[in-house]
Amino acid sequence: MDLDLIQVSLLAILQGLTEFLPISSSGHLLLPSLLLGWADQGLSFDVAVHVGSLLAVIGYFRSDIRRLLLAWFLSLHSGKSSADSKLAWLLLIATLPAGITGLLFNDVIELYARSVIIAAVASIIFALLLLWSDRVGKYRKELFDLNWKQALFIGIAQTLALIPGTSRSGVTMTAALFCNLNRQAAARFSFLLAIPIIIASGLLNFIEVLNSDAGVGVAGHWQTLMYAAGISALVAFSCIHFFLRLIESIGFLPFVIYRIVLGCVLLAVYFV
Predict the structure, then answer these.
(1) How many domains does the chain have?
(2) Boundaries of domain holding 126
(3) Most CB contacts within 10 A, which of 73, 100, 204, 232?
């Protein structure tokens, strides 16, 4: 990992800013190497900043997570159903498609993970889909109004986030808006749905680090990696907090415009 403190800080901030906002973290993490000629941050760094993102979303939704887990275990043990246990089951259903797809196509994903042209085109296309969903969505439903078919639809949509530049949060919010959830409910479901996916992908990447040459050098960089995880966590926590408070009033148009600009920048860099 050939990065200095400034580079580590900026990349960790970039990860924290883009992980949960609907603007594509993979597209942004291509920019430093393309525009500034920075070395690739490496898989161990990716694992560290994703751990930071995971800590942020778990910390922010800790009460919800505790309540959902308790309700889910009660539903297993006693068959007692509640709104919380239903939501927990819906999150599990929505997680399965991306989890299965990730396991089956992990090698293909890694092969194209740094593709500039794919990230650029995906950023623009899925930005327009987000705009469409924000325009046609009726915003009637709350989080607990979801049914299993809609949860599965959101989960299938989440598999598209394996395409670089798509934005996991963006595509799941898009699908949730098409299911007529209001903006805040769509965002909350997307954030909760991120937890099992980040855990699963993080474990896969961690195993890959341990089984590669990169794993040998991790011990010498653990302080840097912990620092990167901490910065990513703080920034991601702030993003979640302010996004949920502002999304009903500002809508998704600013993020759509930003993503189209990002895609055009990536295309310009690629072809020039």
Answers:
(1) 1
(2) 5-271
(3) 232
